[in-house]
């Protein structure tokens, strides 16, 4: 073998060829069959709760990018070592590549959203990896092959892998949902949500805008690649403890009289002061209508929903049926069809419950059942079964550790207690008394409310606290609780300096 560097490169080239071949085949059988993504998705599902929590806290929405990059670094390192170990005989390299191939096969095999034909992708990877390594190795140790031949072969592999990988990407794109979403066009609700009055937010004073733009709406899900479902391929099966099983196609939903509701969604992983809370006008149909058409049988407790990628969620049937709550099967958001990353073609939105028990995106299956019969994704991983959103408030301005001018300092923020409503928000500066903030116009009980208050602030360091009281009379506890198992508690506070 010519050099150590070349030996290591051989391993990496074989790895690249393997991944590219798998990606190309995945372009035909479904992008999630791409072994790299299947292993990543498998890793996400196997990740223990504490590590997942740490990843989300540390990397936020970049957690998946960090995972994919970490995987790439490890794989390249292992492949390089495998190459180095194969300077005399190709056996160590072949063993390692076969090992990678088997991991890919197992990952695809165990993905709930993939069927048997998806195994073709990791199989292609396995064959391409082994063949490339064996070929380059033989060429390299052959006494009659020139340096030029070997380099050309290596370059050929790079080009081939590039073309295959790109081809897979293009093929996957051709099957994507963007064009289908474009074709849906405008969704015109029969009953529009009341106009948001100008005094519903204090955006000029530093609160968020009342409605969150779609591209600013927080996003939380376990999907490494956003599921691409075309409206024309989508259907929703409604079954289980019902009088008759029903199946809805996209047109069946779209052609009903649509309702529009303004709803604030919150994630259970939102830390005190966190950003996983947003508000939109959702357009869709009443979930209760669909459930009543199917006829919910007595004894039903859980609405167990599944997304196309196998993620599952369990909601209380009672909450889904409660007309006053206004649970929806939503197909639109802020005047557009649902953005793909927010669940196109359709998702659940049940106001008042954290997203993991109420907001299944890319939903394709609703099973009416009991709590004992089915356990949803996060329930199995240590999160609570029922998870109503906890009353919370957040200071948005000043920012933590900001320096402001002394004198009049305006503090502004948001509060939410979905389905109960906010009664008041109080602020405390340092050791001072609690003072009541000015509340914004109430849009409805299922949305956040904005608030502001001014303090006369002396120069120096300060801390300001906020706490909300909801319409049930409950005032936020000071006691800090973490997000696991059913949502964080505690007062948000920020430190700032007046100059
Ligand atoms: N298919 C699917 N739906 C899902 C999730 C998921 O991981 N997969 N996450 C849930 C969680 S935890 C939350 S908080 C909301 C977030 O919805 P958004 O990303 O549209 O804000 O989606 C819910 N629906
Ligand atoms: Mo969530």
Description of the molecule:
33% of the residues lie in helices and 23% in strands. The protein has 499 residues and is an alpha+beta fold. Strands 2-1-10-5-6 form a five-stranded mixed β-sheet. The structure holds the ligand Nc1nc2c(c(=O)[nH]1)N[C@H]1C(S)=C(S)[C@@H](COP(=O)(O)O)O[C@H]1N2 and molybdenum atom. The ligand Nc1nc2c(c(=O)[nH]1)N[C@H]1C(S)=C(S)[C@@H](COP(=O)(O)O)O[C@H]1N2 binds at residues 217-223, 265, 267, 307, 309, 311, 342, 355-356, 359-362. The ligand Nc1nc2c(c(=O)[nH]1)N[C@H]1C(S)=C(S)[C@@H](COP(=O)(O)O)O[C@H]1N2 is lined by residues 217-223, 265, 267, 307, 309, 311, 342, 355-356, 359-362.
**Helix coverage percent of residues?**
25-40%
What is the correct CATH architecture of the largest domain?
A: Alpha-Beta Complex
Give the mean pLDDT: 93
The radius of gyration computed from the alpha-carbon positions, rounded to a whole number of angstroms, is: 27 Å
Give the spatial strand order of the biggest sheet. Answer: 2-1-10-5-6
Distance, first to last CA: 69 Å
Number of strands: 19
List the main descriptive attributes of the protein structure presented here.
499 residues; alpha+beta; Immunoglobulin-like; five-stranded antiparallel beta sheet; 11 helices; binds the ligand Nc1nc2c(c(=O)[nH]1)N[C@H]1C(S)=C(S)[C@@H](COP(=O)(O)O)O[C@H]1N2; binds molybdenum atom
């Amino acid at each position: 073998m010519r050099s150590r560097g070349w030996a290591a490169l051989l391993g990496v080239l074989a790895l690249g060829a393997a991944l590219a071949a798998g990606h190309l085949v995945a372009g035909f059988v479904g992008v999630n069959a791409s072994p790299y993504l299947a292993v990543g998705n498998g890793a996400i599902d196997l990740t223990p709760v504490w590590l997942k929590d740490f990843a989300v806290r540390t990397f936020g929405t970049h957690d998946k990018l960090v995972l994919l990059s970490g995987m790439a670094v490890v794989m390249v390192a292992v492949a390089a070592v495998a190459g180095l170990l194969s300077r005399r005989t190709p056996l160590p390299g072949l063993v390692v590549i076969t090992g990678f191939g088997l991991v890919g096969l197992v990952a695809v095999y165990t993905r709930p959203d993939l069927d048997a034909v998806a195994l073709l992708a990791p199989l292609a990877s396995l064959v391409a990896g082994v063949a490339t390594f064996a070929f380059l190795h033989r060429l390299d140790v052959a006494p009659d092959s020139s340096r030029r031949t070997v380099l050309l072969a290596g370059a050929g592999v790079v080009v081939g892998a590039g073309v295959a990988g790109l081809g897979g990407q293009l093929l996957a794109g051709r099957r994507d949902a963007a064009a289908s979403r474009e074709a849906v066009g405008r969704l015109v609700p029969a009953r529009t949500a009341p106009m948001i009055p100008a005094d519903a937010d204090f955006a000029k004073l530093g609160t968020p805008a009342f409605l969150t733009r779609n591209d600013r709406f927080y996003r939380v899900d376990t999907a490494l690649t956003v599921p691409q479902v075309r409206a024309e391929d989508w259907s929703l099966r409604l079954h289980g403890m019902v009088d008759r099983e029903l199946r809805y196609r996209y047109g069946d939903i779209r052609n009903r009289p649509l309702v529009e509701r303004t709803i604030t969604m919150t994630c259970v992983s939102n830390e005190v002061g966190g950003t996983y809370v947003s508000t939109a006008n959702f357009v869709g149909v009443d979930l209760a209508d669909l459930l009543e058409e199917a006829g919910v049988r007595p004894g039903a407790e859980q609405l167990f929903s599944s997304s196309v990628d196998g993620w599952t969620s369990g909601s209380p049937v009672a909450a889904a049926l409660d007309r006053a709550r206004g649970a929806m099967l939503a197909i639109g958001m802020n005047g557009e069809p649902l953005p793909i990353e927010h669940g196109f073609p359709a998702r659940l939105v049940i106001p008042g419950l954290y997203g993991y028990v109420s907001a299944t995106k890319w939903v394709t299956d609703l099973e009416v059942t009991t709590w004992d019969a089915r356990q949803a994704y996060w329930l199995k991983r240590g999160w609570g079964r029922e998870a109503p959103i906890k009353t919370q408030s957040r200071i948005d301005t000043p920012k933590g550790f900001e320096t402001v001018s002394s004198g009049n300092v305006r503090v502004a923020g948001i509060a939410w207690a979905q389905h109960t409503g906010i009664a008041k928000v109080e602020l405390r500066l340092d050791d001072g008394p609690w003072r009541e903030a000015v509340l914004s116009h109430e849009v409805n009980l299922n949305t956040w409310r904005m608030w502001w208050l001014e303090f006369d602030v002396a120069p120096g360091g300060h801390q300001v606290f906020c706490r909300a009281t909801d319409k049930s009379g409950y005032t936020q506890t000071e006691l800090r609780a973490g997000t696991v198992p059913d949502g964080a508690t505690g007062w948000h506070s920020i430190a700032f300096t007046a100059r």
